[in-house]
Amino acid sequence: MIHFPSITIVFLLCVTFSYATKIVDVEIICKEAEDPSFCSTFLKSRPPGISGDLVSLDKYSIEYVHANITYTVDLIKKLNAQSRDINEEDYYRRCLTHFDWVVYYIVEIEEKTKRGDYTDVHEKADFITIDINNCIYGDSPSEPVFHDTSSLPKYLDVIKKIANIISNKNGKPSVLVWGSCEHSSVVDRNISLHHASREGNQCADYFAKLGASSDAHFIVHQSPPADLLPLLRADAIGTYFVRS
């Protein structure tokens, strides 16, 4: 298995159908990534037959991440079976317990994004980071940190980096916010922007950069462009709001 961490799992957090099916420039996608060089290398080295549109790149990346998490679980089980003392055994058992949740969260992310549902994706990514940190450092500050000389820390670090990218902890907008949302909304200045809080639909973060107010809870658009519709829901009188 090639152990490139996936960094495009976040790409479809705000995608619209018409934009997502177009072939994209990897360099443009990757310029806002945490590690643009790695992002570019990873996407350009995808297997033959995988298209360069956002939907295909996202599907490939999520499946790749899931496979790497599965591999890591198997590695922990193997290392646990080879434990030489009680401290080592306790460490790997603790990691297995926390990886039960890591697997749960990545499956949730995968299933939700396949349905085009991005609610709670940030939260689940944060939980992945928390569980991996608890694997490494223990469940309480009083627990001694186990010095692991195996290959496991390398894989834990990869998964943490993926989770950090998903949750946008570095404060940058997700890559696709600057791709899909910019493409969808900037071209039509008739959008009334009022929603700036962070949510599963990350367009709110991008809208905030256009001057949205943080004291309201929605964006309003009486006649949104067609490619913005997947991001919105309509109320009874036909006013469109950011999906909650």
From TrEMBL:
- Extract the signal peptide range: 1-20
Q: Which NCBIfam families does UniProt cross-reference here?
A: PME_inhib
Protein's name according to its UniProt entry: Plant invertase/pectin methylesterase inhibitor
Q: Tell me the CDD domains matching this sequence.
A: PMEI
Its source organism is Medicago truncatula (Barrel medic)
The family this protein is said to belong to: Belongs to the PMEI family.
A GO molecular function annotation here is: pectinesterase inhibitor activity
For this UniProt record, give its keywords in alphabetical order, as a comma-separated list.
Answer: Disulfide bond, Signal
UniProt cross-references to SUPFAM superfamilies, sorted A to Z: Plant invertase/pectin methylesterase inhibitor
Q: Fetch the InterPro entries from UniProt.
A: Invertase/methylesterase_inhib (IPR035513), PCW_Enzyme_Inhibitor (IPR052421), Pectinesterase_inhib_dom (IPR006501), PMEI_plant (IPR034086)
